[in-house]
């Protein structure tokens, strides 16, 4: 009996998935996990607000200008008079 390439790939992926499940079960600890000695609490400032000190990655802000250009300063962020009014279907 000949099997096509698709059947071989499906069989290989199924075997790999089964092996992954068996390996994950072998690594899973038995029984309940031990409770931490002291529960973690959010650090707060002396006046009670959350303490946000630390290092904050700014990778998502690369390329974002810190100041608006002089040409953009004259425009508003809201709807301008140049835009057409919104036409809603009735």
Compile the SSE list and pairings.
Blueprint: H1 5-27, H2 70-73
Secondary structure category? mainly alpha
Q: Figure out the total of helices.
A: 2
Strand content: under 5%
Number of strands: 0
Shape: flat
Low-confidence regions: none
Q: pLDDT average, as an integer?
A: 78
Indicate the radius of gyration in whole angstroms.
Answer: 29 Å
What is the CA–CA distance across the termini? 65 Å
Helix proportion range: 25-40%
Major beta sheet summary = none
| Topology order in helix (H) and strand (E) letters | HH
Keywords:
90 residues; mainly alpha; 30% helix
Summarize the structure.
By secondary structure, the chain is an all-alpha fold. The protein contains two helices and no strands.
Note down, in words, how this protein is organized:
- It contains two helices and no strands.
- The longest helix has 23 residues, at 5-27.
- It is mainly alpha-helical.
- The protein has helices spanning 5-27, 70-73.
């Amino acid at each position: 009996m000949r099997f096509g390439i698709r059947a071989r790939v499906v069989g290989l992926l199924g075997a790999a998935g089964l092996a992954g499940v068996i390996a994950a079960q072998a690594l899973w600890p038995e029984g309940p996990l031990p409770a931490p000695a002291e529960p973690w609490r959010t650090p707060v400032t002396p006046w009670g607000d959350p303490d946000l000190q630390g290092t904050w990655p700014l990778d998502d802000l690369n390329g974002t200008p810190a100041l608006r250009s002089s040409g953009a300063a004259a425009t508003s962020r809201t709807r301008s008079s140049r835009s057409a009014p919104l036409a809603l279907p009735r």
